[in-house]
Amino acid sequence: MKTGMVIGKVWATKRLDELPGGALLEVAVEEEGGTGERMIAYDALGAGEGDRVLITQGSVAKGWFKDGKAVVDALIIGILDVQRPPPAGRKRT
Q1: How much is the pTM?
Q2: Which of 3, 59, 76, 81 has its CA 20 to 30 A from that of 46?
Q3: What percent of the chain has pLDDT over 70?
Q4: Which residue segments constitute the domains of the chain, with CATH numbers given?
């Protein structure tokens, strides 16, 4: 699994019947020291530009679809909350 930041939508010129309602999103994968590669991930959760997301890839992503025929290699499986620093004088538990 990887985390990343949604940076935009991807539009296809043809509808694929294998994909249920959702969107293809461009995601900048987060790596130590900044962002790394970009990937296209299928999203059925409603993530938007600027959201941090959790992504799975490979057979796990493909297995999410009922018939397993969808041509998807990356799937957004969660939208992450933004972590805020604790108030001054308090430690995280």
Answers
A1: 0.78
A2: 59
A3: 83
A4: 2-80 (2.40.50.220)
